[in-house]
Amino acid sequence: MSKQNKSASAEIILQVIQQVKDRSRKDIRKWRRGMLAAEDTENPRWFLLQDIFSDLLTDGHLGSVMELRSSATLNHPFYVTDLKGESLEEQTNLLQKKWFFDSIQQYLEATYFHHTLLQYKREGENISFDKIPRRNVCTQLKRVYLEADGDRYIDYSAEQDVIEILHSSDFGIINDIVPNLIWKRNLLQSDAEFSERFGMPLITAMTANRADAQRIHKALRELGEAGTGVLPLGSQIQVHSLSNAGNPEKVYLDPAKFHDNQVSKRFLSSTTMVDEGANRSQTEVHAESLDDKIARTDRRMVAFIINDHLFPILQRFGLPFDNTKMKFSFDETESLSIEQEWKITNEALNHFDLDTTDIEKRFNLKIIGKKEPKQEGFAANFR
């Protein structure tokens, strides 16, 4: 097998040959063949399995649960601190950029698709990255194949500007629900065929005049959705509704909902957050479970990647980041409502002197002075 050499500064993405993905109909046999190819001990290839994942992303329910899980991390506040825990505003502000949030999104997707390979670069004051197509990456051998099914490759293991994110699962968690997505797609296609075939009622006509048969047939074909027509005198028309023949909802739609539930459970450990029939209390409990358990695990994984891999790259780019002196963290303090914070602050003022600058910032208030001691309530406590 030949090897494609490259200089350390070359961009991998520019050497990868763009190829057409497999968009043919997916079935269980193709899925199993993709897994076998990805775990081949001598020449593992991932393009068969990754093409299946990519094609199944058109499922709306899958897209919604993935977005919901990712948002639980992407919308969470974060900061950079020194090793003593003091906030570093300069470094925190430098990360409040689109490229950084896009990076976190890619880190999270490694959980879904097993791996993500990013190559970072700096152009002036701008930081950006290239996502290497997963179908071209072989994580076992640390190779990027220039053609997904070819022999030429790049060894990315020694590249200092490359970050590889691997999930602990064999193929990524989306692989666990591939059969559900395939079966659901088949069910919905069968339901569409049923609707096309039996959705419009069958109309028949009877006549005693054989000579009128051709004319009646033409008139029935012209009825269409309008439901009107001109037939010879004496013709008898019958409308046969077949829309409920065989109970299509039980045969097709209910099983499709079952497969949606399996997808929700795998990604969110719950079905209520995306189920229109769920009650509010259940949804709130499961939303807390997502944020406190699943998303917290995702955030911990993201923090490890940023501290151990991204900060050294940014430091080599000349930015003020040093993972030996600072660390990235998500804010994991308990989230309180504005009313709860107001009550706690008001009570604290009875016992302590607080910084009014922080209070102004938190509650969007402009404090211009102190009230006399006789005044009761929140403002009086600024004495």
Describe this structure in words.
By secondary structure, the chain is of the alpha+beta class. It folds into 3 domains: 1-184 and 279-333, no CATH class; 185-268, no CATH class; 338-382, no CATH class. Helix content is 43%, strand content 13%. The strands form 4 sheets. The chain has a 3-stranded antiparallel β-sheet, with helices on one face. Strands 4-5-6 form a 3-stranded antiparallel β-sheet, with no helix packed on it. It has a two-stranded antiparallel ribbon with strand order 1-10. α6 (178-198) runs antiparallel to α8 (248-268).
Index terms:
43% helix; 13% strand; alpha+beta; single chain; three-stranded antiparallel β-sheet; 3 domains; flat
Question: Which secondary structure elements does this structure contain, and how are they paired or packed?
Answer:
Blueprint: H1 28-38, H2 47-56, H3 60-74, E1 78-82, H4 89-94, H5 98-113, E2 115-123, E3 126-131, E4 137-138, E5 143-145, E6 153-155, E7 162-166, H6 178-198, E8 202-206, H7 213-221, E9 236-240, H8 248-268, H9 280-316, E10 326-330, H10 338-348, H11 356-363
Antiparallel strand pairs: 1-10, 2-3, 2-7, 4-5, 5-6, 8-9
Helix pairs in contact: 1-2, 3-5, 3-8, 3-9, 5-9, 6-8
Strand content: 5-15%
H/E series: HHHEHHEEEEEEHEHEHHEHH
Neighbour order of strands in the largest sheet: 3-2-7
Radius of gyration: 31 Å
Give the low-pLDDT segments. 5-9
What is the molecular shape? flat
Percent helix range: 40-55%
Number of domains: 3
Number of E-type strands? 10
Given the structure, what is the number of helices? 11
| Structural class assignment | alpha+beta
* Global mean pLDDT: 84
Distance between the termini: 79 Å
- What about the largest sheet? 3 strands, antiparallel
